[in-house]
Specification:
With about 375 residues, the protein is of the alpha/beta class. The chain contains 12 helices and 9 strands. Helix 4 links the parallel strand 2 and strand 3. It is globular, with a radius of gyration of 25 Å.
Length: about 375
């Protein structure tokens, strides 16, 4: 078909009309969601509307998915697409968080210790866990390994046996992130020494402790040494894989995805051993939610082998002091921001998350005994 000739001045005029129309249309489209996000009364309306409402896009679709769920039968692993909910990393902060979110109290109590731990420290931890009865709380304990050059095997065995002896006074199951963040240059672990020490400690605990302990092999996304296989002690020494996530870019990093996918291939559940909105904070309303919290939740939805997470809900400057290298990490106390708090509360209502409960009810959800 022949196209009729149109003078250039008409073409130019028409082009400008079209461009102006497109501009105002685009502007109108942009203003609609902005009003929903920034309006003061938008949050109650978001919570009141269904998941199909466009204003509810701060929350992904339901996290739980029977279709995509995996189960490897590992110690303490939830059956199906379920996620153990943990908070750290002190007694005070655990209590405060539990008080602000009474409908979804954490089941994992995140803390730290060392191979030099004393019996009285373990007894104190045991007493603290008992304070939450009848709820059954499982500690998630980060334990560092020796990192000096020329580590003497005999000395490590002595340390490991004493640690196992003291740990036995806990008299209840626990996760141990042994030699956590193994690839971080700040830990200065030599791969061969690390693997040797790891095996020695696991062996001593399995021989001396009568209750089940799940060992988590924990990776740092930002660690300098990215060949994690060099640090792997072997399948027989590991129950879970773990990963620590802080900055927003950690959630989409290639090595984060690679590590979680590799764990799935090797039939391991993954624990997010440490997480906190570094340099974002939890005090910036919708920005904090979309930049950090929503990315965490999306990770749960995308990877059904993530079966546990622990959130560090500190005001980092207050806890470590203004001169600490961590002073600018931000205030991660969720309950202090109304937007973040309300959305987190709503998120924790998802049946994917496992909260504190009695031991009897928990046994129906996770494998509490080593097979």
């Amino acid at each position: 078909m022949k196209i009729p000739y149109v003078p250039s001045y008409v073409r130019d005029f028409n082009s400008k009309i079209i461009l102006c129309t497109q501009y105002f249309l685009l502007l109108a489209l942009c203003l609609v969601p902005c009003q929903a996000v920034f309006s003061q009364d938008s949050l109650p309306s978001i919570l009141a509307k269904s998941n199909h409402d466009a204003a509810n896009n701060w929350l992904p679709d339901k996290i739980i998915s029977k279709k995509d769920s995996v189960y490897f039968g590992r110690l303490f692993e939830p059956r199906g697409h379920r996620i153990l909910h943990g908070i750290g990393q002190s007694e005070k902060i655990f209590k405060e968080y539990s008080r602000h979110f009474p409908a979804s109290p954490p089941i994992l109590f995140m803390t730290y210790n060392s191979l030099w731990v004393r019996k009285r420290d373990i007894l104190r931890l045991k007493k603290e866990l008992e304070n939450y009865a009848p709820n059954f709380i499982i500690p998630q304990i980060g334990v560092g390994l020796p990192n000096w050059k020329g580590i003497d095997t005999v000395q490590v065995k002595e340390l490991a046996e004493k640690f196992a002896e003291n740990l036995s006074f806990l008299q209840g199951p626990a996760f141990i992130r042994l030699g956590y963040e193994f690839n971080g240059e700040w830990n200065r672990y030599n791969p061969e020494d690390y693997k040797r020490c790891y095996r020695i400690v696991v062996k001593a605990i399995r021989e001396k402790v009568t209750f089940p302990i799940a060992f988590v092999w924990c990776y740092a996304v930002e660690g300098m040494y990215q060949n994690w296989e060099d640090y792997y002690p072997g399948d027989e020494w590991v129950d879970w894989w773990g990963i620590d996530l802080f900055s927003p870019e950690h959630f989409s990093a290639g090595n984060t995805k690679d590590f979680i996918q590799k764990a799935n291939v090797k039939h391991y559940p993954v624990m997010i051993g440490e997480s906190s909105p570094r340099w974002v904070s939890a005090q910036r309303g919708d920005y904090s939610w979309r930049t950090w919290f929503k990315q965490l939740i999306k990770l749960f939805a995308y990877y059904p082998n993530i079966k546990a997470f622990c959130y560090i809900t500190y005001d980092w400057a207050e806890y470590y002091g203004p001169v600490s290298a961590l002073h600018d990490w931000g205030d991660a106390r969720i309950w202090r921001d109304s937007v973040v708090s309300a959305r987190w509360k709503k998120t924790m209502e998802d049946p994917a998350f496992i909260h504190a409960q009695t031991k009897e009810s928990l046994q129906k959800l996770i494998n509490l005994e080593r097979k």
